[in-house]
Amino acid sequence: MQKSSQPSKDRRILFIIAFCAVSGAVLNGSAGWAQSNACSQLENPTQECWKKSPMIGALEGGVMGIFAGTGAAVGAVWRRYF
């Protein structure tokens, strides 16, 4: 009797998607934090710089990173698994 490879394949796809989503959140979150900090250290910061805290910048970057990472993972595995 042959064993079905479907559960293993599904687990791999989910792992790749989760890994890319978390990686994107971490990378974009830290980039958003750094950008907010750099913006507030300018000689003449804009009004938008004063309104946005580094925490909000990191949160926005993290959310965008989740979408970007998930999209990249789906694009990477699309041809192979679907």
Topology of this structure?
Layout: H1 6-40, H2 47-51, H3 54-81
Can you offer a commentary on this structure?
The structure is a single chain. This protein is 83% helix and 0% strand. The chain is built from three helices and no strands. The chain is mostly helical and 82 residues long. α1 runs antiparallel to α3. It is rod-shaped. It has one domain. The two termini are 25 Å apart.
N- and C-termini, Cα separation: 25 Å
Helical content stands at over 70%
Q: Classify the secondary structure makeup into a structural class.
A: mainly alpha
Count of separate DSSP helical elements: 3
Number of separate domains:
1
Quick tags:
82 residues, mainly alpha, 3 helices, rod-shaped
In short:
This protein has 82 residues and is mainly alpha-helical.
